[in-house]
Amino acid sequence: MLISGTDALRRAAAEGHALPGFVAYNLETVQGITAAAEAAGRPVLIQAGSSPFKHAGRDALIRLALDAAAASDAPLGVHLDHSRDLDEITACLSAGYTSVMVDGSHLPFAENVALTREATRRAHDHGAWIEAELGAIAGDEDVSTDADARGAAMTDPRQAAEFTAATGVDALAVAVGNVHGFTRDPVRLDLDRLAAIHRAVPVPLVLHGASGLPEAELRGALARGVAKVNVNAELRRAYLTAVRDRLPDALPDSDAVAVWAAGRDAVRDAALRVIHQLSPAS
Ligand code: 13P
């Protein structure tokens, strides 16, 4: 079932756990994420687009994600990740996305505020909630580049307070040493900075780049206002590893469905592990 509104996000923030946001590129990743949410019975966000639209096509991926969420028993939101494009944001909102992320982090502060404020108006007009980014998260969204956060603009707590007040966003993605994709050296978060941002802003915080993040760093983030955690590379790795391992037995003219199913099931298992990590201790 589709869940709208900020209830799940706010509950996670109040209770010290987090909503997983899983990036989906295709049929098997949407199915794997949905199956994980069903197995856990926990709220999950399917992050369909913006970058995955380049592969799947916008309309196709929108329909795939929304139909899967609506048909499922699990509480699922459908979210647009990292969009710089107001037309794309409007298209997803009009189709029924329950939340969007506008990413003006590459812009000067005043321009980021202006873009985010307009996206916020559109999201709220559609009854959706919105996440924005301040500071720049290192790395690439679609491949692991072994980037590190040196040189990336960290989120400034005072600017974060000004930004959330000026834009009215519902959640804020922060740059506190986090990196998109796997890295050679373990990532260390600036937890003091994260705590200062948490004290300064009234909205839940979002941590991007959770793949490969040491457990202690993740726990530290959950204790400092992070109520949504984005995961992508971990699911990609699970999917490709399962497909690669299955291929030697799969002759070109044999059962391709079994190969795709192996990828789908690996995504489900990886997503389920993350859901449990982010859930309240039972
Ligand atoms: P990872 O690829 O490191 O999991 O990051 C995902 C992400 O932040 C998507 O926005």
Bound compounds, each kind once, are:
1,3-dihydroxyacetonephosphate
Instruction: Give the helices and strands as they follow along the chain.
Output: HEHEHHEHEHEEHEEHEHEHH
* CATH fold group: TIM Barrel
Q: Which structural class best describes the helix and strand composition? A: alpha/beta
Counted by DSSP, the helix tally is: 11
Weakly predicted, low-confidence segments? none
The coarse overall form would be globular
CATH architecture designation: Alpha-Beta Barrel
CATH superfamily: Aldolase class I
Q: Strand sequence of the main sheet, in spatial order?
A: 1-2-3-4-5-7-9-10
Largest beta sheet, briefly? 8 strands, parallel, barrel
Number of domains: 1
Strand portion, in percent?
Answer: 15-25%
